[in-house]
Amino acid sequence: MAFQITNKRFILRALQSPDAFSLAKHANNQKIEANLTDVFPFPYTPSDANNFILAKKNETPIKTFAIVIDGKAVGVISISPRVGIYRITAEIGYWIGESFWGQGIMNEAIKEILNYTFVTFPEVLKIVAFVYDFNIGSAKALEKAGFELESISRKAAIKNENVCDILNYVCFK
After folding, report:
1. Strand, helix or coil at 158?
2. How far, in Å, are 71, 106, 118, 165 from residue 102 at the CA level?
3. Helix, strand, or coil here: 167?
4. For residues 60, 63, 67 and 71, what is the CA-based torsion angle, rounded to 10 degrees?
5. Residue 101 DSSP symbol
6. Mean per-residue pLDDT for 19-34?
7. Which of 25, 34, 65, 103 is deepest in the core (most CB within 10 A)?
8. Range 142-154 burial, b when 16+ CB lie within 10 A, else e
9. How far is 88 from 80, CA to CA, in rounded Å?
10. Coil, strand or helix: which one is 49?
11. Res 2: pLDDT
């Protein structure tokens, strides 16, 4: 059996080709796109999901996980360790289908990835997350998972033609 993280509410595991349709179904939502960087395509198609899965399939160790509920991939959570002088830091990123918002699933998934990261990448001492100021749900999920607001970068980004602040969250080992 391939590596996975099992929680009573979900499984975190490597992305698989059969996940493409379910990921596209959940990701093809303007409310999700509005909270992610512009690298995330919209509309989000099964072809986009397939390309993403192919790009992540050879990760060793796994850094990008499908969030699986009732056998279906309904979101993604990833950890990106940095390199060079920043090698003690990693960045977390995530999304989950709108029908799963507000249920505490994401803060549990974040906690699982924190534990995984600090064990799998022992050099990582700090995990960062960057959140648009209007994404209150993501900020709450991070805080419930143990992150602290470290700083606010004022007028740091533009998303869908709106200038916004970036909330900089951190969690230390």
Report:
1. strand
2. 20, 9, 26, 23
3. strand
4. -10
5. T
6. 98
7. 65
8. beebebeeeeeee
9. 11
10. helix
11. 79
